[in-house]
Specification:
By secondary structure, the chain is an all-alpha fold. It has helices at 4-16, 50-73. It has one domain (4-73).
Length: 74
């Protein structure tokens, strides 16, 4: 069973984007997190992946924020 932090991180990833798998591996191509299976319905990052995935979420949030700021200035 995943620790609460990993479950919460998985939920944050699910809110950000739907898992994108190749149908054979349980890994999201977009963020690199483990998923619940090859079909990839939910993100389930391992404890080892949690820090990297949280950093990815922060970077993605900043990227979106900057893109919106550029549109406003546009």
């Amino acid at each position: 069973m995943a620790p609460d932090g990993d479950t919460h991180t998985g939920s944050q990833l699910d809110e950000d984007h739907a898992p994108e798998t190749n149908g054979r591996m349980s890994v999201c191509r977009r963020c690199g997190s483990q998923t619940d299976g090859p079909a990839g319905r939910h993100h389930l990052p391992t404890e080892r992946q949690s820090a990297r995935v949280r950093d990815w979420l922060i970077a993605e949030s900043r990227r979106v924020h900057l893109a919106r700021a550029r549109q406003v200035r546009g």
